[in-house]
Amino acid sequence: MPSISCTTRPRRATEASGKCYDFVTQAQFDAMAARGEFLEFARVFGKHSYGTPKKWLEEARKKGLDLVLEIDVQGAEQVKRKLPESVAIFILPPSRQELERRLRSRGQDSEEEINRRLARAREEIAAFGKYYDYCVVNDEVERAGREAQSIVVALRCSRARRLSEVEKLLASLGGKD
Prior knowledge:
Blueprint: E1 5-7, E2 21-23, H1 26-34, E3 38-44, E4 48-53, H2 55-63, H3 73-82, E5 89-92, H4 96-105, H5 111-126, H6 128-131, E6 134-137, H7 141-156, H8 159-173
Parallel strand pairs: 1-2, 5-6
Antiparallel strand pairs: 1-4, 3-4
């Protein structure tokens, strides 16, 4: 189940509120943070705030679903601290050149902003081992998507996730363990 983050940045022409983001004012965001409504949140590049409302985690748990967060390294650090059992997948660009090409192709950042983002990318990639359990190189979107799905499937089949099913079957078979 995907979550919908809150952000204070302006909505882009191609975005609709409530689809990828809920667009809120800084005052609304600050009030939500003060009430403890976010699982994770941060001010990015000193400009705009982003956060994942806790309600998405609560809803996923009620439905027995996995929750997918699209968050940066700051968010991953916060989530790992609050939910050590969470699994983080780092989506890595294939090269510096490709990352720069992707940033430029968006056509919305100044040269200064692009340089700042590239410098920040280096810091974030260096933090990979601290907060992430897996890494997927996003050089070809279909393959990268299959790799991310494979990680989720493997996690769903793990001993920890299937233990109750194993115990239930053992109990139905009777006898000693």
